[in-house]
Design a protein that fits this description.
The complex is a heterodimer of chains A (about 425) and B (about 450).
Chain A: H1 2-6, H2 8-13, H3 25-30, H4 37-48, H5 56-63, H6 70-74, H7 81-96, H8 102-112, H9 114-134, E1 140-141, E2 144-145, H10 156-159, E3 163-164, E4 171-176, H11 179-183, H12 186-198, E5 201-204, H13 214-218, H14 222-237, E6 243-246, H15 249-262, H16 270-279, E7 280-282, H17 283-289, E8 304-308, H18 312-318, H19 322-329, E9 334-336, H20 352-355, H21 357-374, E10 378-381, H22 384-396, E11 402-405, H23 406-412
Parallel strand pairs in A: 4-5, 4-6, 6-7, 8-9, 8-10, 10-11
Antiparallel strand pairs in A: 1-2, 3-5
Helix pairs in contact in A: 4-7, 8-9, 12-23, 14-16, 15-16, 15-18, 17-19, 21-22
Chain B: H1 4-14, E1 19-20, H2 23-28, E2 42-44, H3 49-61, E3 66-69, E4 86-89, E5 96-100, E6 105-108, H4 114-122, E7 126-127, H5 140-146, H6 153-156, E8 163-169, E9 175-179, H7 191-195, E10 204-211, E11 213-214, E12 218-226, H8 229-241, E13 248-253, H9 254-264, E14 274-282, H10 284-300, E15 305-308, H11 312-323, H12 325-328, E16 335-338, H13 348-361, E17 365-371, E18 376-383, H14 388-407, H15 423-429, H16 432-445
Parallel strand pairs in B: 2-4, 3-4
Antiparallel strand pairs in B: 1-2, 5-6, 6-10, 7-11, 8-9, 8-10, 12-14, 12-15, 13-14, 13-17, 16-18, 17-18
Helix pairs in contact in B: 1-3, 8-10, 8-13, 9-11, 13-14
The chains are: A alpha/beta (about 425), B alpha+beta (about 450).
């Protein structure tokens, strides 16, 4: 298979030293070799060598990977386990001509299409939650806090105009909303807009924006991912803007980094991709690097102890760690405290939480414990998927910490006199 | 293939979720950190001593050999399974049963990872000295099976020196307790010491009584950089001759400095011929005087640069660079052969000279890594497994290095064990009569040769 041939030298570079074992949350939780980076890499190599078949157990090893990237950091020989898993998923997709099982394929197709996605969320808010409310005890479906999961009454993009202007704008910023903020955490989307407008930015929200394509990309469906990537790039580049801001770590890493890899085979289009990628900023990065936060405008509210969770896509992909902490520290009367293992995966990882729920739930439990031990009342983070996952974990454990986005805390610090 | 009946029995003993016999699982336990491989019929994870006893008795009754395993990071092939065997994987027995700081004793299960143990001990102001480079992944049971060492062993000794007692499941399924929590009590034969380093060929360890130490009040970490590897090795001999006992005296040569630097960006000098990482510990008041003496010795041996790590971060960087060495060589070539020979300390410079010569004579990339204070070498011969001619030269070098070590009064293995990889070499080291004694001991414990058969001898 071509895909595995392309990465064969890297597969062969793994000398099985095992340093990655301890870096891997799925291995440390399950303690079986196929759940470790070394195990996955050796299986992919054996498949490439034709020694094993891509059976159900192989797929489980490959699809249970969180793609958190911790193994790549730990590897002394520079083997990037997460990239190899991604190649293996692409290979599986090409071998089978589609993504199995049907539920996974359905979920990914739904995410890729705005109309299907909106329909899905509406159905969930109405009928879905109605049914759940009538089933006693079914608050958590496969470790996901379904009852507690917020659904926007109306998608965020239907609540706001395409152009939100301020007096004397210093910058023109396009907001890449992302599926979660549009359909579930619309409050956070409003927080982002508020912080930007308070800092003299015109905000443009292209109404034809679609899913960034990461969910499809992560399961090897590069065709759909490319389709969505192209739509995204074009819908933003046709606007007259200085920057693109996203408040989702996962979308951020897709928009800023993975697009470049995805289009590496299209040299004619690549310059346009680069032009787009150069404009992309993650929210806290934008606040720290592109605007001067006028701290005198930030009002003190009730004192609160806050800790920060580093989403995988922030810490290991975008490598943004200090900026969100800086933003938090600039908020008056906010006491910042670090939790243990702040930069380790929360267990969400896209569809892993749905398809390997026991594993994922155990990993979330470790995150919840670290949060409780930190003594914080509020957990701030930069990724809506982490927000929902961690809040579910906290509720499940009977704890009362609230999970919010960094943007939510910052927005709250601006008195709402406007 | 394993029969349904056997599989059902295994599941009845350890539970459905602790037995794996599918192709993917079996394939995943066919290797360790060497290039060897072998395929078992199934892998089982006992989680208690009782389950281990039941497993051993049942597999005895159906005449199936057992191969113990922890994290599978060993460098000897000690966990490579044979056909028709069952892998008994202890990595789900991870409990710390007791930490007794008054008596300096901890009681642990064999699957506990060395690093996880250290993290827990740190909370009490204690530590466990044996620290193999792979300590973040290796299990204590595995360390015990191979009698692992580590950089700190120059001053503090190897795993053997920290095992006070054991709970052992014998090949007939009976449980014995050896030693105990007392520092000096092994009346009669010292069974504990026979079991340490026995690679699971005599019994399976289900509980370990370990000696732990309070953390030293102070330590200093130094980096000495040399243009010539021979000058570094002279320094090692001189430090030992001066009667100084650092905790650590590690040497790496130019090839390994570069792969480690690629991996860590720790700021190691890429053009240096060799470097030494020297660490001392003890009381704060003694530190400066010792550092001065060491600096003086280094200077005498034409050190190019002598640095003292000033911050915790600097110390950590140096250690990270040292620990990643073996893993990092794949950046240069995809395969490596790692030796573990040890020579008397005074012979250290002669051994280095010989390895430098071998490198030229056989035209191979050989990185020199050494726990220099112990005279324990890890020459890393780098090659590509797919190149037949190279592979032959590598085997010739392996033999050459072992012969050289024995000629200098050394041994073929310092801390990695024998496993499958060094079986021919151990026969070079011991007389036929001595090997016969090995076999008698094996047969006394395991008359039917069902525990990790084919390993060591």
């Amino acid at each position: 298979m071509g895909v595995l041939n392309d990465v064969y030298e890297m597969l062969n570079t793994c000398n099985k030293c095992g340093f990655c074992l301890t870096a891997c949350k799925t291995y440390k939780t399950d303690l079986r070799e196929p759940m470790s980076p070394r195990g996955r890499i050796q299986l992919i190599k054996k498949l490439a060598d034709g020694v094993i078949e891509p059976d159900k157990d192989y797929e489980d090893a490959i699809n249970s990977c969180l793609l958190c990237g911790e193994c790549a950091v730990a590897c002394p020989s520079g083997v990037r386990g997460n990239d190899l898993v991604l190649a293996a998923r692409r290979d599986l997709k090409l071998r089978k001509g589609g993504i199995k099982p049907f539920t996974k394929s359905f979920a990914l197709k739904t995410l890729a299409s705005p109309s299907r996605l909106e329909h899905g969320f509406n159905l969930f808010r109405g009928v879905g939650k109605g049914i759940l409310n009538r089933i006693d005890g079914l608050d958590y479906f496969r470790g996901v806090d379904v009852k507690g999961m917020p659904v926007a009454k109306k998608p965020f993009m239907d609540q706001v105009p395409e152009h939100i202007t301020v007096n004397n704008p210093k910058k023109k910023v396009a907001f890449f909303v992302g599926c979660f903020l549009n359909h579930s955490l619309d409050g956070t989307a409003h927080s982002v807009v508020k912080v930007l407008t308070k800092n003299d930015c015109d905000v443009i929200i292209p109404k034809d924006q679609v899913c960034c394509g990461l969910p499809q990309y992560a399961y090897g469906d590069f065709e759909t991912a490319k389709e969505n990537a192209r739509k995204t790039i074009e819908s933003f580049l046709k606007k007259d803007i200085d920057s693109v801001v996203t408040a989702c770590a996962s979308c951020g890493s897709m928009l800023k980094e993975e697009y470049l890899k995805l289009f590496a085979d299209e040299p004619n289009y690549l310059p346009r991709v680069k032009e787009f990628c150069a404009k992309v900023f993650e929210f806290s990065q934008f606040v720290e690097e592109e605007i001067e936060l006028d701290k005198s405008k930030l009002k003190s509210h009730t004192p609160v102890k806050v800790t920060y969770h580093d989403p995988c896509h922030m810490v290991r992909h975008l490598k943004i760690t200090s900026q969100p902490r800086q933003v938090l520290r600039s908020i008056p009367r906010l006491e910042f405290t670090e939790m243990n293992e702040a930069n380790r995966c929360c267990g969400a990882s896209g569809l892993v939480q749905a398809f390997y729920h026991e594993l994922s739930t155990d990993i979330t439990r470790q995150k919840t414990k670290n949060i409780v031990d930190s003594g914080a009342e509020v957990v701030a983070t930069s990724c809506p998927a982490c927000m929902l996952r961690i809040q579910g974990g906290i509720n499940f454990a009977g704890q009362k910490q609230k999970v919010v986005h960094v943007a939510d805390l910052l927005a709250k610090a601006y008195k709402s006199e406007n | 293939m394993i029969s349904h009946n056997v599989l059902d029995q295994l599941k009845a003993i350890v539970g459905e979720k602790n037995v794996f016999a599918d192709t993917i699982s079996v394939s995943s336990y066919s290797y360790d950190a060497t290039m060897l491989s072998g395929t078992a019929m199934a892998t089982v994870f006992p989680v208690t001593t009782e389950q281990t006893v039941h497993l051993v008795k049942y597999l005895d009754s159906v005449n199936i050999p057992l191969v113990p395993r922890g994290a599978g990071t060993n460098l000897s092939g000690g966990t490579i399974p044979m056909e028709n065997s069952v892998v008994v994987n202890f990595s789900r027995m991870t409990k710390i049963l007791e930490i007794d700081t008054e008596n300096f004793v901890a009681v642990v299960e064999p699957g506990l990872v060395n690093f996880d143990f250290q993290v827990e001990l740190e909370k009490y102001g204690f530590y466990y000295p044996p620290d193999p480079a792979s300590y973040k992944a290796t299990t204590l049971g595995g360390n015990l099976g191979e009698c692992s060492g580590g950089p700190r062993c120059f001053k503090y000794g190897v795993t053997r020196d920290y095992v006070l007692g054991l709970e052992v499941v014998l090949p007939d399924g009976q449980i014995i307790q050896t030693g105990g929590r007392n520092f000096r009590s092994e009346p009669g034969f010292d069974l504990t010491r026979i079991l340490v380093g026995s690679e699971g060929t005599l019994g399976f360890i289900t509980k370990i009584f370990l000696r732990i130490l309070p953390k030293p009040a102070a330590k200093k970490t130094m980096l000495a950089i040399y243009n010539e590897v021979e000058d570094a090795s002279q320094t090692v001999a001189d430090i030992v001759a001066a009667g100084i006992v650092p905790t650590t005296l590690e040497m790496m040569d130019n090839i390994l400095i570069n792969t480690a630097e690629d991996a860590t960006g720790a700021g190691l000098p890429r053009d240096a011929g060799a470097l030494l990482i020297i660490e001392i510990d003890g009381h704060e008041v003694d530190m400066d005087a010792q550092v001065e003496i060491i600096a003086e010795i280094c200077k005498k041996a034409r050190v190019r640069e002598f640095k003292i790590a000033r911050t915790v971060a600097e110390v950590d960087q140096l250690w990270l660079a040292r620990r990643v060495v073996i893993g990092s060589v794949a950046r240069r070539r995809p395969s490596y052969s790692l030796q573990d020979v040890t020579v008397p300390r005074s012979m250290f410079p002669s051994a280095v000279k010989e390895i430098v010569k071998v490198r030229k004579d056989y035209n191979l990339d050989i990185g020199i890594l050494a726990h220099a204070g112990d005279g324990n070498f890890h020459p890393l011969v780098l090659f590509d497994q797919r190149n037949k001619d190279e592979v032959e030269r590598v085997h010739a070098v392996e033999k050459h290095i072992c012969t050289m070590a024995l000629a200098l009064g050394g041994t073929v293995s310092g801390e990695h064990g024998i496993g499958l990889l060094k079986k021919h070499f151990i026969e070079m080291e011991f007389s036929a009569t001595a090997m016969e004694s090995f076999k008698k001991i094996k047969s006394a414990f395991d008359p039917n040769h069902r525990f990790n058969p084919g390993k060591i001898m």
